[in-house]
């Protein structure tokens, strides 16, 4: 959706909210002062959405604790959880909270800084193929970079598993000798493709490559299950462009999921202010670092300090101050009827699960469920409950919290 169409959509939704008392609302979530107080949203629904008048009542139960520092979780068909540990291990956790021994066969990872073993996802045909995908910070002779590996997960009778046919199918290029902004989420689609999100590696010398089609930094990729560019990607016929690119101008995307229509949504980290919700479309430019909300961590403006231009897309929504988003799920289930069709986003800094209620592809309401720890990933379980993976980087540990409707 272009800036003009977002402005029109925002105007239409404002009219709906004013004329429909059924969409009762409260005040926005209280926050600290913004980092960029002189910046204004491009349309009313782009920032500080109201809370629903009635907030969900949530009970929380720790179902697993003392785990190594985790990065991602995925449910297996039998209800057990496949989890990645940042240090480079893959485990299976039972619903009772028992963790398996590390699963052999995981590729070597560079776990420094923001690196490590990152996301894990089941192939769309997992029940017949047992195929999984893992993203990780891959050590290389000239630095490191985000990579995606495929493998067959062979489950055994003792509750553990092994990996077979492990193969790296995709590598973000170029490599860079740094320890920040690897992304990364993997989102399989029903047609057998994968969306892969990556970061732009953070540092000033390289982050501008988020705007370059010859570079794999700061992009979203769309590939097939063997790692090849999707045949209908937007730049497959563009000379000098990487054919795997779906969209460009992204900073560091650690939240991504499909909505009920099968469309990709993401939430990406901003700097000081400027975390963004985007609905990335093929071939479009999302601005970073030329166009952005927020400011540098130093307090200086980002680039020329502009928040909009005709060549780049506006975010659906942004936060200032940030939530520091990681992990994202689309809610479909019976446990929380009021969340049906909402996005659930983990907040690292805010230490909560952020619930975004969507109407006409805009954020109509925002509510938050405090967890009391950094939320690294969020998943909806087969029982309709919401599961949050928390982390304590200093202790190097994680917990898994189950959220249900309070009785």
From TrEMBL:
Which SUPFAM superfamilies does UniProt cross-reference here?
Soluble quinoprotein glucose dehydrogenase (SSF50952)
Q: Which InterPro entries match?
A: 6-blade_b-propeller_TolB-like, Glc/Sorbosone_DH, Quinoprot_gluc/sorb_DH_b-prop
User: Coiled coil: which residue ranges?
Assistant: none
UniProt keyword annotations, A-Z:
Signal
- Show the segment(s) annotated as Disordered: 28-51
Annotated signal peptide: 1-24
Q: Which Pfam families does the UniProt entry name for this protein?
A: GSDH
Q: Superkingdom, according to UniProt? A: Bacteria
From the record, give the transmembrane residue ranges. Answer: none
Q: Where is the Glucose/Sorbosone dehydrogenase domain?
A: 69-394
The name on file for this protein is: Glucose/arabinose dehydrogenase, beta-propeller fold
**Species whose genome carries this gene:** Devosia crocina
């Amino acid at each position: 959706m272009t800036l003009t169409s977002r402005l029109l959509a925002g105007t239409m939704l404002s009219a709906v909210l004013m004329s429909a008392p059924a969409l009762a609302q409260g005040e926005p979530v209280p926050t600290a002062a913004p980092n960029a107080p002189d910046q204004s949203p491009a349309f009313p629904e782009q920032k500080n959405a109201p809370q629903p008048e009635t907030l969900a009542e949530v009970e929380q139960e720790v179902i697993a604790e003392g785990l190594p520092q985790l990065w991602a979780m995925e449910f297996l068909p039998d209800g057990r959880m496949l989890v990645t540990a940042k240090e480079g291990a893959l485990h299976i956790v039972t619903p009772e909270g028992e963790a398996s021994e590390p699963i052999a066969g995981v590729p070597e990872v560079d776990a420094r800084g923001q690196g490590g073993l990152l996301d894990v996802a089941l192939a769309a045909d997992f029940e017949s193929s047992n195929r999984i995908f893992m993203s990780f910070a891959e050590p290389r002779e000239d630095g490191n970079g985000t990579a995606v590996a495929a493998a067959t997960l062979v489950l055994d009778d003792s509750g553990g598993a092994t990996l077979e046919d492990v193969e790296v199918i995709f590598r973000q290029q170029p490599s860079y000798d740094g320890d920040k902004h690897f992304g990364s989420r993997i989102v399989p689609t029903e047609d057998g493709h994968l969306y892969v999100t990556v970061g732009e590696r953070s540092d000033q010398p390289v982050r501008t490559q988020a705007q370059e089609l010859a570079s794999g930094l700061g992009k979203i990729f769309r590939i097939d299950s063997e790692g090849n560019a999707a045949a209908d990607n937007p730049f497959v016929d563009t000379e000098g462009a990487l054919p795997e690119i779906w969209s460009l101008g992204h900073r560091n995307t650690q939240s991504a999921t499909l909505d009920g229509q099968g469309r990709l949504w993401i939430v990406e980290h901003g700097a000081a202010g400027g975390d963004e919700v985007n609905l990335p479309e093929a071939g479009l430019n999302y601005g970073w670092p030329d166009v952005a909300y927020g400011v540098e961590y130093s307090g200086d403006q980002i680039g020329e300090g502009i928040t909009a231009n005709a060549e780049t897309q506006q975010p659906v929504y942004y936060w200032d101050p940030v939530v520091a988003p990681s992990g994202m799920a689309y809610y479909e289930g019976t446990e929380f009827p009021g969340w049906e069709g909402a996005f659930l986003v983990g907040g690292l800094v805010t230490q909560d699960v952020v619930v975004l209620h969507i109407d006409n592809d805009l954020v109509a309401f925002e509510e938050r469920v405090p967890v009391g720890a950094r939320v690294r990933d969020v998943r909806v379980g087969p029982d309709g409950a919401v599961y949050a993976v928390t982390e304590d980087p200093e202790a190097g540990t994680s917990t898994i919290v189950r959220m249900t409707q309070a009785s």
